[in-house]
Amino acid sequence: MEYNIYCDESCHLENDKQKAMVLGAMWCSFGSAKKIFQEVRDIKKEFGLAQNFEIKWNKISQGKVDFYLRLVEYFFSNEALHFRTLVVPDKSILNHDAYNQSHDEFYYKMYFDMLKIILSPQDSYNIYLDIKDTQSQYKIERLKKYLQSTHYDYDNRIIQKIQHIRSHEVEIVQLTDLFIGAFSYLHRGLRYKQGKRRNYKTDTTEVWLFNAIFNFAQRAENKYFSIVAKSSRGRC
Fold first, then answer.
1. What Cα–Cα distance (Å) separates residue 65 from each residue in 52, 78, 163?
2. Binning pLDDT at 50, 70 and 90, where does residue 234 land?
3. Helix runs in the chain, H state only
């Protein structure tokens, strides 16, 4: 069977002054992707938003809380959609030298660790990553080589392609951003950060959304939803 995997990441750079690194992947069968795109656009329309409105964690607000809660409900009610996230809780204590690796190599190892449970040698996959920076194409080439070598997929049968897409054009990437944003929010300790003024109404909305995701995940059936917290010691 053929699947599409939509990936996103948060705070993955080595020196971005952010504590936690979060990778996320949402996937569905190739044949169900277009239907999901349209259903998410219909939800946007239901709440009076333009179809090209981009769903993002950093766009949540009290005025749109019902919209975002509806998206969370939609994900967990749709048996075709699945999600896996990998969290490195504290990048500041990574010790790459001890494992003879660069931060880039660690990054690819973490991507592999996230995707290895999703990939099956009996199926084929199209992997899509959100464009982040000028190094995006280089990252794709490195990631593809890494995944192919670890899966002995030298004829491109398992991993048919890895390519960049623009998140504002692809609804499933937007949903991935929403979910990894929730886990980044938690692991970066933003809700409880001392010495920084926060917007109470926005904070409350963020907490509601994270709790909604967590509560739905606790009772989800016929749904693959996985959260992996890695050691921050730098080893895969």
1. 18, 20, 32
2. very low
3. 33-46, 65-77, 103-115, 136-150, 171-187, 200-218
